[in-house]
Specification:
serine/threonine-protein kinase, Agglutinin, subunit A, 15 helices, five-stranded antiparallel sheet, lectin, five-stranded mixed sheet, disordered C terminus, alpha+beta, Phosphorylase Kinase, domain 1, 44 strands, EC 2.7.11.1, membrane
């Protein structure tokens, strides 16, 4: 019969080393190397110490209790100092789960979070029915408040309800070192990149395998066993996808050979059935092919093939190329020159399709026939043979040389043409200047400069905008590069104005600088073409406004009369030489935007020294109706001849009708005006359009008297133009009574209004004259 002491000793041994349950409290030491274990509430899992055959150490582990074939799903102290003593125990000490070796701690499960239930807690260790060993408050079963749990430190196995977490760094499965050695091995399994995840297997630091991306319900290339859950942009979970029909015992294990296998327990035959194995084939191994090539599984062995084509090629691929991805793209990467490829993939965050791009070499491409995502690749192009490259290069070089030779030939030819044009222009420039001017360069510099013919062609848009024409040729509008508008007078080859007249106009008008003289910008001679470039006057000629239906009030008419008188006084009395215009008429008086008159068209002008009072020509020049009697009958021109033309113009401005086309019983406008003035009815001479507005004005009567005085038959009876300017400016200056004007048909005594030639010659015989050979006669019709 046993004594009380023996019974007490056996009770203590049973309490310390033979007890079992699912909870280990502070002070309990019965879970030990000597045999005590924790058993889950329904007896599915058991936790305790075991000794592997391949090592002399003891390990804390969790295994299936009712499976005859011992199957470990978690090992605790596999990375710490080995436990060799037979006195090892598992205890709860100061809210920590500790393995002691003869009272020396060799492994800790440290409290990681505080309980939300109360400030005072009592920590216990408990083995849950799902195989999770937890450290928790004895009164709190909320998983969110567990201080520590074995599911947060996975070893080589994933159980249902267990999560592999991505939280800045991965939680991996780590294989056993050998089938009988639970210490950490060389293989790792997990998933990478939380937003576009893929499964991966590593051998140490070398990436051995990558699955296809998550397509919303499975990883491409892997069975639909796993599911993913998204928590936020930094945390996501990988779980075993279980259903109500799943076997009671199921697990995914990373074996020590690097294969990931899915097992379920077959209760009928009492063994584990392998459902699938993630053993990478040759195409699934990392870097099986070089960059920018894809692996295709053949009948005998896998083959690496280069990506064909020059454009984006659509490939049905299961494996995304690179591990590092930029942010999702909004334009499929087509606008990014560094983009190598792009694809559309399901985002775990939004559960929507989004675009991802890659740059650099593409690795781990694999072609699938029944699943995968379209990968669009920008390729470098097809490889061409060296022969074609050489031939193409030679042809390109020959073409370039031929084009270069043609360009040089064209450039040389163009240069010669330009030189010939410049030589022609230079020769014409010398021809334009008179011998006296060629000798006196200072005086020659006063001439307007010759202008480039091509520049004038561009300015006039190849002479496309005609603004006037006459017997001399045509006038075109143009715009210089500076923006200044010009009028280009292009002399016709059929014009009676030859080189002499052209030269005369250049030489005469180039010297004139006056408000009432049209400005000559320059001239150009190219081959048979002769151009005069004037300032552009927007209101055209006086003739168009007087006889073309224009409306001119008296103030404007008087302003024009005074301006023409001032311009005529300048050209005849204000310069070094005497300039005789010889063709003064309304058509040769142009108006600017302010209706300021400017005398133009000096093609028939003559230049004489001040000592030469008259110019004698063998032929008449000018326009009928404006030519003085001495010029018409005897070819004698003087400053008084231009005064006569001015007098006719003044009367035309007052009356509004043209002298030579005036219809009256007493002849031309001159006779009509003289008759009305002599009768005292001078107001009837005024244009009916303005008669009521200016009948009281002294200016009108003064202009009529000036017009009649300037158009006197004899040159000696006509006033100096400078006196006319003064008489038009001031009413107080006396003016003599005019006599009968020239071309008055019949006087009161029945005699002709044209004196005999003997009288005319007698007047001019005392004058000094010079002879000028040749002539030009203006057209009778208005231009």
């Amino acid at each position: 019969m046993m004594s009380f002491g023996h019974i007490l000793f056996l009770s203590i041994l049973l309490f310390e080393y033979g007890n079992s349950g699912d909870i280990l409290r502070s002070g309990d030491r019965w879970v030990s190397v000597k045999g005590g274990t924790l058993v889950s509430s329904k007896g599915t899992f058991e936790a305790g110490f075991f000794r592997a055959a391949g090592t002399e150490s003891w390990f804390l582990g969790i295994w299936y209790k009712n499976v005859a074939e011992r199957t470990y799903v978690w090992v605790g102290n596999r990375e710490e100092e080995p436990l060799h003593s037979s006195n090892g125990t598992l205890e709860v000490v100061d809210d920590q789960l500790v393995i002691r070796d003869n009272s020396k701690p060799v492994w800790f499960a440290t409290r990681r979070r505080e309980s939300s239930s109360s400030s005072t807690t009592t920590a216990v260790a408990q083995l849950l029915e799902n195989g999770n060993l937890v450290l928790k408050d004895v009164n709190n079963d909320n998983p969110e408040d567990f201080f520590w749990q074995s599911f947060d430190e996975p070893t080589d196995t994933i159980l249902p309800e267990m999560k592999l977490v991505w939280n800045y760094q991965n939680w991996y499965l780590t294989s056993w070192r050998a089938f009988d050695d639970p210490r950490p091995g060389n293989f790792f399994f997990g998933f990478i990149t939380p937003q576009y995840p893929v499964l991966a297997i590593w051998y140490n630091d070398f990436l051995l395998y990558r699955s296809g991306p998550w397509n919303g319900y499975k990883f491409i290339g892997a069975p639909p066993l796993f599911r993913l859950e998204w928590k936020n942009q930094h945390i996501s979970y990988l779980l075993i996808n279980t259903t109500t029909t799943s076997p009671d015992y199921t697990r995914v294990q990373l074996d020590n050979d690097g294969s990931v296998r899915h097992y379920t327990w077959n209760q009928r035959v009492k063994k584990w059935d392998q459902q699938w194995s993630l053993s990478p084939d040759q195409c699934e191994l990392h870097r099986t092919c070089y960059g920018n090539a894809y692996c295709r599984v053949g009948s005998s062995s896998p083959a690496c093939e280069c990506i064909p084509g020059f454009e984006f090629s659509s490939m049905n691929t299961a494996v995304m190329p690179n591990l590092t991805r930029p942010s999702p793209s909004q334009n499929n990467g087509l606008g990014d020159c560094t983009c190598t490829a792009y694809s559309m993939s399901i985002s775990l965050e939004t559960d929507n399709w989004s675009c991802i791009t890659w740059s650099g070499d593409l690795l781990d491409l694999r072609s699938y026939s029944d699943e995968g995502l379209d990968l669009y690749v920008r390729t470098a192009g097809k490889k061409k043979s060296k022969t074609g490259l050489i031939v193409g290069t030679c042809v390109c070089i020959l073409v370039v040389l031929a084009l270069l030779a043609l360009f040089c030939y064209w450039r040389r030819k163009k240069t010669r043409e330009i030189e010939r044009e410049r030589a022609t222009t230079a020769a014409s420039s010398i021809e334009i200047m008179m011998p006296r001017e060629r000798e006196n360069l200072i005086e020659a510099d006063q001439l307007s400069a010759p202008m480039d013919f091509a520049m004038i062609v561009n300015a006039t848009d190849n002479f496309s905008q005609e603004i006037g024409h006459g017997g001399f040729g045509y006038v075109y509008k143009g715009v210089l590069a500076s923006g200044e508008e010009i009028a280009v007078k292009k002399l016709s080859q059929l014009s009676k104005q030859g080189l002499d007249e052209f030269r005369t106009e250049v030489r005469s008008i180039s010297r004139l600088r006056h408000l009432n003289i049209v400005r000559l910008y320059g001239w150009s001679v190219y081959k048979e073409e002769k151009l005069l470039i004037y300032e552009y006057l927007v209101n055209g000629s006086l003739e168009r406004h007087l006889f073309g239906g224009g409306e001119l009030n008296w103030e404007t008419r008087f302003h024009i009369i005074k301006g023409v008188a001032q311009g005529l006084a300048y050209i005849e009395e204000g310069g070094y030489d005497l300039i005789l215009h010889r063709d003064l008429k309304p058509d040769n008086i142009l108006l600017d935007r302010y209706m300021t008159p400017k005398i133009s068209d000096f093609g028939l002008a003559r230049m004489c020294a001040r000592s030469e009072k008259e110019v004698f020509t063998q032929h008449t020049a000018g326009t009928h109706g404006y030519v003085s009697p001495e010029s018409l009958l005897h070819g004698i021109f003087s400053s008084a001849s231009d005064v006569f033309s001015f007098g006719v113009i003044v009367l035309e401005i007052v009356n509004g009708k043209m002298n030579r086309s005036f219809s009256s019983s007493i002849g031309y406008l001159l006779g009509y005006a003289w008759n009305k003035y002599n009768e005292g009815n001078w107001s009837e001479i005024i244009d009916e359009k303005i008669r009521q507005d200016c009948v009281e004005s002294w200016q009108v009567l003064r202009c009529i008297e000036v017009g009649l005085l300037c158009s006197q038959y004899f040159a000696r009876d006509r006033p100096k133009i400078s006196l006319v300017v003064a008489q038009l400016q001031q009413e107080t200056i006396e003016i003599q009574k005019p006599k009968r004007p020239a071309f008055y048909p019949i006087d009161h005594e029945g005699k002709s209004g044209i004196p005999s030639s003997s009288n005319f010659k007698g007047e001019s015989s005392t004058s000094t004259s010079c002879t000028v050979n040749g002539y030009t006669f203006s057209e009778i019709d208005a231009r």
